[in-house]
Amino acid sequence: MYVKEERPETFGSDGSTASSSSNGSSHRGHWGTQIDFILSCVGYAVGLGNIWRFPYLCIRNGGGAFLIPYFTFLFLCGMPLFFMELALGQFSSASPISVWDICPLFKGLGYGMILVSGIVCIYYNIIITWVLYYLGMSFTINDLPWSSCNNKWNTPSCIRSRSYKKYTTNETSYNMTSYANYSGLNGTMQNITGISNITIASVSNKRLTATEEFWQFKALDLSDGIDQPGGIRWELLLCLICSWLIVFLCLIKGIKSSGKVVYVTATVPYIFLLILLIRGLLLPGAADGIKYYITPDFSKLAEFEAQWSI
Asked: CA–CA separation, 68 vs 47, rounded Å?
């Protein structure tokens, strides 16, 4: 087995890096400073999932009890694998495929890493597309388009929020006295334009909030089924092109450009998390929500789904 001998990348006293092969020629780009490398690692570990996926998984799989398998797998699998990947990359300064020259038997693993990274890039850019779309739609002098039921895409079953005692549809204003879960509204409405004792089920079998209807009927413009693909959403297509353009600009000069981009991408998630934390703590009933969120349900640990959610 032949292994190409290369000197590992090193950091100089001024924070710069240098790496060269035995013939003195440089083959790959290098980090500008140590902080570029550190922030890149932080950005690799922290992303959108920390904002929306982890809280969802935690509350779905037993609240505080979910932290037991989470930290178990974090210390037994996550951190060792992360360190091994980091060490191999820093030592070899090679691509995910070339690094497995040290053991050709695992070269297929390198191809798998590239395939998974490609899939992640595709679906993450779709998420960024939605983010850009919502960002663009938020620039309005009036109410946000997903905050009311008075838009052309809203249906008669639209409600402003499930927490509202009073809500409005396109046709009629209702005063609720009892309200069950939205998929089975079997409570009773009173004083509906002078008519009393009419069940909610007789008005609609399912109600969606204004936010849900904006997402389904405006942003995605969902069709009736997979057999009806519908047309191109030109606004989303433009946002998708913009998201790929952003990726291109970040990587146009390799780690020389991406190393500077991480100054923003690695710190912004923490800023967002801090803003959401402060906002959440100031909302009415925040203490009850936190208590519900962290109260452990140990019965969930016996379910197979909780383990694979990690």
From this structure: 22
Q: Among residues 44, 37, 41, which one has the least CA distance to residue 260? A: 37
Q: What tokens does 292 get?
A: 């519900």
Give me the count of residues in the chain. Answer: 310
Measured from the Cβ of residue 169, the count of other Cβ atoms closer than 10 Å reads 19
How buried is 62 (Cβ within 10 angstroms: 0-12 exposed, 13-18 middle, 19+ buried)? Answer: buried
Model confidence over 228-281: pLDDT tens digits? Answer: 888 888 999 999 999 999 989 888 877 777 777 888 888 887 888 889 889 989
The answer, as to whether pTM is greater than 0.85, is: no
Could you tell me which of 86, 82, 89, 81 has the C-alpha nearest to residue 6?
89
DSSP the chain: -----BPPPEE-TTS-EE--BTTS---S---SSHHHHHHHHHHHH-SHHHHHHHHHHHHHTTGGGGHHHHHHHIIIIIHHHHHHHHHHHHHH---TTGGGGG-GGGHHHHHHHHHHHHHHHHHHHHHHHHHHHHHHHT--SSS-TTS-S-STT--TTEES-TT-SEEE-SS-EEEES----TTS--SEEE-BTTB-SEEHHHH-S--EEHHHHIIIIIIS---SSTT------HHHHHHHHHHHHHHHHHHTTTHHHHHHHHHHHTTHHHHHHHHHHHHHHHSTTHHHHHHHHHS--GGGGGSHHHHHT-
